[in-house]
Amino acid sequence: MSQPQVPDVAGAPLVRSAARLSVAPMMDWTDRHCRYFHRLMTRRAMLYTEMVTSAAIVHGPKARLLDYSDAEHPVALQLGGSEPGELAQAVRIARDWGYDEINLNVGCPSDRVQSGCFGAVLMQQPGVVADCVAAMIAESPVPVTVKCRIGVDDQVPEEVLPAFLETVSRAGVSHFVIHARKAWLQGLSPKENREIPPLDYPLVLRMKREFPDLTIAINGGITSLAQAREFLAQGLDGVMLGRAAYHEPGNTLIGADVLWGDGPGRDAFAVVEAMRPYIARHLEQGGRLHQITRHMLGLFHGRPGARGWRRVLSEGVSRPGAGLELIDAALAELQVPAVTG
Question: N or C: which end of the chain has fewer CB atoms below 10 A?
């Protein structure tokens, strides 16, 4: 199969490197507080925003949608849309925010996304996706990437996926994150679409062999760093973690930088300490504790006292004036390892 010639783009080496491990864009979860928290566990992994529609950026409150902390880098903005001109305008607006990557969502199966004719439904229209990414690339100083499924509904993934990659890569995209499941647009809820359609990891591995010049990362059902290492060893360029990174961040993100040859970094207790100044600033600015601590509930998953940690944080945040003392009370539920001299 002939290979597309993709021009070099500023920031591409950083994005390719960070692709070794990334945290998926997840609606209502990967907001700026979540990303700051995750960044304290891994300096290297790429973090993604929740999907933001191009229409919202063009017509909505831009700062509220696009602001983030400089500490989050490398960080990617994920856009949803299917109108090339509007997507180009959204990318033009987002330039001032300095994201490291712009990603187009071609994987979300929700009814709301389908009604807007974007997300996974675009797997049926690779030509439209090609037009969209070409318009985005023309406005973007950083790499434009695509997150997609292996197909939708009655499509045959072995036929659809390579044709999709061929068409979209010729428009200038060299980096794809492939969720290794079909999306069923009729009959399954978004939650069921994350669990019921069978995973086809071999197909994604085959795509890397057929398109060796493309950067291809795999997503879907991956729950551990050990699995990530296996996929990298098999030749894939990257692994994207989803729910496991959110529900068990201590088990999946702490130590992740060894994938780049770095040291293990902070332990979970050090992560909590590093969050304190961020939480304090948020509270001083009128924010609520729950907006941050809801992302921290799974930090100690599987450790003695983890249930108490979750309970104290969950029950205490509703109290008026809840602050850092609640963090202390939650930490007291954990069996902290004794320090030996």
Answer: C
199-234 tens-digit pLDDT:
999 999 999 999 999 999 999 999 999 999 999 999
| pLDDT, tens digit, 9 for 90 and up, residues 49-77 | 999 999 999 999 999 999 999 999 999 99
- 23 DSSP 8-state letter: E
Catalytic residue among 108, 117, 132, 148: 108
Give the 3-state secondary structure of 270-322: HHHHHHHHHHHHHHHCCCCCHHHHCCCCCCCCCCCCHHHHHHHHHHHCCCCCC
Same domain for 86 and 30: yes
pLDDT one-digit tens code per residue, 129-166? 999 999 999 999 999 999 999 999 899 999 999 999 99
pLDDT tier at 111, thresholds 50, 70, 90: low
Q: Between helices 201-210 and 157-170, what is the axis angle to 10°?
A: 40
Task: Find, among 328, 14, 1, 231, the residue nearest to 313 by Cα.
Answer: 328
- Reported as half-sphere exposure (CB side, CA atoms, 13 A), residue 291 has a value of 14
Residues 164 and 248 in one domain: yes
**Would you list the DSSP string of 114-182?**
HHTT-GGGGGG-HHHHHHHHHHHHHH-SS-EEEEEES-BTT--HHHHHHHHHHHHHHTT--EEEEESS-
Q: What is the DSSP string of 72-101?
A: G-SEEEEEE-S-HHHHHHHHHHHGGGT-SE
Number of domains in the chain: 2
C-alpha span between 15 and 180 (Å, rounded): 21
What is the Cβ-side half-sphere exposure of residue 241, based on CA atoms within 13 angstroms? Answer: 29
The model carries a pTM of 0.92
DSSP state of 259: G
| Residue at 41: amino acid letter | M
Range of the structural domain that residue 295 is part of: 268-331
